[in-house]
Inverse folding.
């Protein structure tokens, strides 16, 4: 993506240069309030569970693990992978939240890790409990494994996400977007690492030694695919 793809953000949309010669201009679309509220509510429920029962009580978290579809080559070019993708802060909150998360992560290294769980949860909730803190135009995630998904995005930065939630409402959203790679010098990458590392040593995470780069998913379209009883509305 660094050499084959260039993405420029403007006030009106995104200009994408593919493989040095193919140019695309796409508009951007704000995420729906219902999606943002669900992202906040799902995390708040998880944090309340951790506060009540500890880190080992965490269970499946579909609001954070959508299926990401990317485009490759060959007879079956579509690649699917579950990818941790979540809200990013609005620009005015980005630096302050990052510094707070990093400070608490460093403090946890100096003490017994479980002792700092209440402080780390409070910091996370200061962001995730209010969907008004979220950037409503994009989402972010970290690359860990550098597999087919990463290789596809190097050549084709157009992708789709499918989120699907738990009963009783089964919230579901399909998002289409342009994916921008972010590295260590980018404030978004620094936030994504800080947010991940805030709970990196807890029981519900697979521990990782490095995060080679991250992604910002710029939303260009979305569909609400939440299921409903037949006869109560149109199919999605």
């Amino acid at each position: 993506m660094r050499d084959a793809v260039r993405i420029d953000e403007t006030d009106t949309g995104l200009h994408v240069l593919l493989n040095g010669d193919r140019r695309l201009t796409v508009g951007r679309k704000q995420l729906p309030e219902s999606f943002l509220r669900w992202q906040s509510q799902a995390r708040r429920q998880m944090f309340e569970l951790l506060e009540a029962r500890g880190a080992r009580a965490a269970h499946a978290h579909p609001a954070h693990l959508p299926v990401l579809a990317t485009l490759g080559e060959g007879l079956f070019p579509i690649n699917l992978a579950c990818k941790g993708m979540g809200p990013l802060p609005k620009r005015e909150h980005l630096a302050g939240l990052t510094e707070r998360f990093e400070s608490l992560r460093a403090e946890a290294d100096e003490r017994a890790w479980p002792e700092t769980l209440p402080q780390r949860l409070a910091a996370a909730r200061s962001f995730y409990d209010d969907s008004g803190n979220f950037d409503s135009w994009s989402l972010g995630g970290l690359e860990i494994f550098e597999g087919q998904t990463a290789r596809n995005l190097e050549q084709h930065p157009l992708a789709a996400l499918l989120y699907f939630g738990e009963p009783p409402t089964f919230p579901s959203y399909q998002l289409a977007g342009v994916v921008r790679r972010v590295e260590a010098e980018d404030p978004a990458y620094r936030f994504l690492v800080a947010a991940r590392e805030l709970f990196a040593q807890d029981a519900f995470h697979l521990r990782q030694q490095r995060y080679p780069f991250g992604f910002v998913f710029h939303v260009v379209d979305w569909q609400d695919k939440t299921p409903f009883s037949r006869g109560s509305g149109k199919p999605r």
User: Anything to note?
Assistant: The chain has a mean pLDDT of 90.
